[in-house]
C-alpha cells in the first residue's frame, strides 16, 4: 500500500517559485497497475519521483506499507529503494556494460554472491525474452529490447513496486504494446504494484486498472480506468477521450442538439437509439460512433444530432438518461 | 659519407639520444602518474559538488575551481622556479629529472582535474539517476557508473595530458631537468649541432605519435556506446 499524504513540491530558481505539486493525497493498493495521466508540465513525473524520493517533497509524507520514507536517513533510504524498481523513457542503461552486466548491476552493488547473480540474471533474461542478447551492449539493441533490459534490471532486486516514467514514450506503437504486455504479465505473476506515468492514452487504456489525472500540480480526477474514461470529468481526461470527429461535427450541425452518448458494457448492444426514435417524435442523425475496449470492457460512444420539437427532444434526452447512459450536450442549436 | 662512417655516425647519435630519451620517458611517466593521482579526485570532487549533482556543495566547488584556475594560469617556466623549495623538500635537490617530476606533476594536476571534470560531465544524468534509484552509494556511483561510463573520454584525456607533460618536460630540461629538451638546447642551440636538434625533434614526433595511437586504440576498446 502506497499512501501519499498532503504532498507538495515547490521548485525555486532565481528567487522564482514554481509549485509543481500542490497538496496531493493519493493511495495506491498493492498489486494495482496505477496510471498517472496528465499533459506535459502537469507535474506527473515529479509525483512519481516523490515515491522513491528522487525528488524530495517540499512538504508532506509518503508511506510505503508502514514506513514513512520521507523520514528515512541516507542509508535506510538506499536500502529501501531496493524495494522499488524504476524504468525510464530513455532506458538509462549503462552503455559500457553488457546486457548481462546491466541486469546484474543492482545485485552487484548489494554485494550479492556471484553464483546467485548468475542464476538470477539468467532467469530474468528468460522472462524478458533476451537470452540471445546476453553479451550484447545496449548500443546494439533496439529501443524495445533496451526497455526489456531496463525492466529486467528493475526486477533484479525483487521489488514490490515498479515505477515507470514515460516508459513507452520513446517506442513505436507495436513495441509499446509488447512492453505493456510484459508489464501486465509481471504484475499478474509476481503481484508487483506498477505505477505508470504517461501522456499516452493507449497506455492507460491497455494497462492500467486505476488512474489519477493531474492538472496544474493537483489531482483533478481519480478512479478506475473504466469510470474515468466512460465519464470523464476533468479537462485533461475529456481532452484525452474527445473524439477526433467532435470538433468537425460541431461545424456540420447548424440546428438541433448535438449529443455525445456513452455506453458501457452490454448497453452497447441494446437498440436504445432506435427505440428512442420510435417512441418520441424526433429525428436522430448519427454523426459518428466508436466502440473502444478498455480493460476488457466495451466502451461505446456515439455522437448524434437530435432535431424536432423542443419538448420532444427534452423527452428523448430524458429517455436516454433513464437507461443509464451518459449524455453530454456538446452543442445546443435550439435552446 | 661512406657506409661504415654513416653507421658509426648514427650509432654516436643514438648514444647521445638514448639517455636523454630514457630521462624524458622517466619524467613523463612518473609525472603522469602523480598528476592523475592528484587530479582525478580533484576532478571528481569538482563534478559531484556542482549544482544538482550527487554531493552538491557550491562553496567547496567554487573554492576548488578557483584554485584550479589560478594554478592553470601560471606559466610553467615560472611555476618550476617557484616550486624549487618544494622540490628540494621532496627529493632533496632542484636539479635532475627526479626533481623535475615535482613541478611537472603539480603543473599537470589542475589540467587533469579539468579533463576529468569534462569527461565525467558527459555522463548522462539519467544513468546516474537510475543508479540512485537502485540504491547505489555515492562511492559506487562514482566508481561503477561515472568512471566506467566516462572511461573512453578519460583515456583520451590522459593521452592529451601525457603529450602535454612531454612538452612541459622540454621546458623543465631548460633549467636542469635533463631529457630530450635539455639535449636539444645543449647541442642544437648552444653548440649549433643542427643534426642533433633535428634528431631530437624526430624522436619527439615519433613519441607523440605512439602515445596518441595507443591512447586512441585503448579508448576505442573501452567504448561500447
From TrEMBL, chain A:
GO terms for biological process: amino acid transport. SUPFAM superfamilies: ACT-like, P-loop containing nucleoside triphosphate hydrolases. InterPro entries: AAA+_ATPase, ABC_transporter-like_ATP-bd, ABC_transporter-like_CS, ACT-like_dom_sf, MetN_ABC, MetN_ABC_transporter-like, NIL_domain, P-loop_NTPase. One of its GO terms (molecular function) is ATP binding. GO terms for cellular component: membrane protein complex. Pfam families: ABC_tran, NIL. It comes from the Bacteria. Keywords: Amino-acid transport, ATP-binding, Cell membrane, Membrane, Nucleotide-binding, Translocase, Transport. CDD domains: ABC_MetN_methionine_transporter. Residues 2-241 form the ABC transporter domain. This is D-methionine transport system ATP-binding protein. It comes from Caloramator quimbayensis.
TrEMBL record, chain B:
Residues 21-215 form the ABC transmembrane type-1 domain. The chain crosses the membrane at residues 25-48, 63-84, 91-113, 154-176, 196-219. Its main location: membrane. One of its GO terms (cellular component) is plasma membrane. Keywords: Cell membrane, Membrane, Transmembrane, Transmembrane helix, Transport. GO terms for biological process: D-methionine transmembrane transport. It is found in: Cell membrane. It comes from the Bacteria. It is a multi-pass membrane protein. The keyword Cell membrane applies. It holds the Pfam family BPD_transp_1. Belongs to the binding-protein-dependent transport system permease family. CysTW subfamily. This is D-methionine transport system permease protein. It comes from Caloramator quimbayensis.
Amino acid at each position: 500500500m502506497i499512501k501519499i499524504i498532503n504532498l507538495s513540491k515547490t521548485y525555486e530558481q532565481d528567487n522564482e517559485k514554481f509549485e509543481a505539486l500542490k497538496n496531493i493525497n493519493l493511495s495506491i493498493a498493492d498489486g494495482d497497475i496505477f496510471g498517472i495521466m496528465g499533459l506535459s508540465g502537469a507535474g506527473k513525473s515529479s509525483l512519481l519521483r516523490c515515491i522513491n524520493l528522487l525528488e524530495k517533497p517540499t512538504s508532506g509524507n509518503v508511506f510505503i506499507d508502514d514506513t514513512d520514507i520521507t523520514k528515512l536517513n541516507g542509508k535506510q533510504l538506499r536500502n529501501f529503494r531496493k524495494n522499488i524498481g524504476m524504468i525510464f523513457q530513455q532506458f538509462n542503461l549503462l552503455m559500457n556494460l553488457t546486457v548481462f552486466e546491466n541486469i546484474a548491476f543492482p545485485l552487484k552493488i548489494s554485494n550479492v554472491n556471484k553464483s546467485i547473480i548468475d542464476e538470477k540474471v539468467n532467469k530474468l533474461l528468460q522472462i524478458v525474452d533476451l537470452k540471445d542478447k546476453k553479451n550484447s551492449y545496449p548500443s546494439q539493441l533496439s529501443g524495445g529490447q533496451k526497455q526489456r533490459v531496463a525492466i529486467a534490471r528493475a526486477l533484479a532486486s525483487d521489488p514490490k513496486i515498479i515505477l515507470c516514467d514515460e516508459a513507452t514514450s520513446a517506442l513505436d506503437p507495436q513495441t509499446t504494446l509488447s512492453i505493456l504486455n510484459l508489464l501486465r504479465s509481471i504484475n499478474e505473476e509476481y503481484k508487483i504494484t506498477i505505477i505508470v506515468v504517461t501522456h499516452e492514452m493507449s497506455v492507460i487504456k491497455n494497462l492500467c486498472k486505476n488512474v489519477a489525472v493531474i492538472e496544474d500540480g493537483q489531482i483533478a480526477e481519480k478512479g478506475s480506468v473504466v469510470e474515468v474514461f466512460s465519464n470523464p470529468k476533468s479537462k485533461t481526461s475529456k481532452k484525452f477521450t474527445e473524439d477526433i470527429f467532435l470538433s468537425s461535427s460541431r461545424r456540420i450541425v447548424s440546428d438541433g442538439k448535438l449529443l455525445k452518448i456513452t455506453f458501457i458494457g452490454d448497453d452497447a448492444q441494446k437498440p436504445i437509439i432506435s427505440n428512442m426514435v420510435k417512441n418520441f417524435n424526433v429525428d436522430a442523425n448519427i454523426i459518428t460512433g466508436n466502440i473502444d475496449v478498455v480493460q476488457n470492457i466495451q466502451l461505446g460512444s456515439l455522437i448524434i444530432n437530435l432535431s424536432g420539437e423542443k419538448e420532444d427532444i427534452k423527452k428523448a434526452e430524458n429517455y436516454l438518461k433513464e437507461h443509464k447512459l451518459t449524455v453530454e450536450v456538446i452543442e445546443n442549436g435550439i435552446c | 659519407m661512406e657506409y661504415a662512417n654513416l653507421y658509426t655516425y648514427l650509432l654516436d647519435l643514438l648514444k647521445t639520444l638514448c639517455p636523454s630519451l630514457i630521462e624524458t620517458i622517466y619524467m613523463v611517466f612518473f609525472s603522469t602518474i602523480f598528476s592523475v593521482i592528484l587530479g582525478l579526485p580533484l576532478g571528481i570532487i569538482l563534478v559531484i559538488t556542482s549544482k544538482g549533482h550527487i554531493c552538491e556543495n557550491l562553496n567547496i566547488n567554487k573554492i576548488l575551481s578557483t584554485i584550479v584556475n589560478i594554478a592553470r594560469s601560471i606559466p610553467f617556466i615560472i611555476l618550476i622556479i617557484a616550486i624549487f623549495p618544494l622540490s628540494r623538500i621532496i627529493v632533496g635537490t632542484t636539479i635532475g629529472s627526479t626533481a623535475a617530476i615535482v613541478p611537472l606533476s603539480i603543473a599537470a594536476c589542475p589540467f587533469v582535474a579539468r579533463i576529468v571534470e569534462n569527461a565525467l560531465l558527459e555522463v548522462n544524468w539519467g544513468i546516474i539517476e537510475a543508479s540512485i534509484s537502485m540504491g547505489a552509494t555515492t562511492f559506487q556511483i562514482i566508481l561503477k557508473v561515472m568512471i566506467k561510463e566516462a572511461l573512453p573520454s578519460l583515456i583520451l584525456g590522459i593521452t592529451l595530458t601525457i603529450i602535454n607533460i612531454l612538452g612541459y618536460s622540454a621546458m623543465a630540461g631548460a633549467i636542469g631537468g635533463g631529457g630530450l629538451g635539455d639535449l636539444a638546447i645543449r647541442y642544437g642551440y648552444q653548440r649549433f649541432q643542427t643534426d642533433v636538434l633535428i634528431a631530437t625533434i624526430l624522436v619527439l614526433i615519433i613519441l607523440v605519435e605512439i602515445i596518441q595511437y595507443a591512447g586512441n586504440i585503448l579508448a576505442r576498446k573501452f567504448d561500447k556506446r
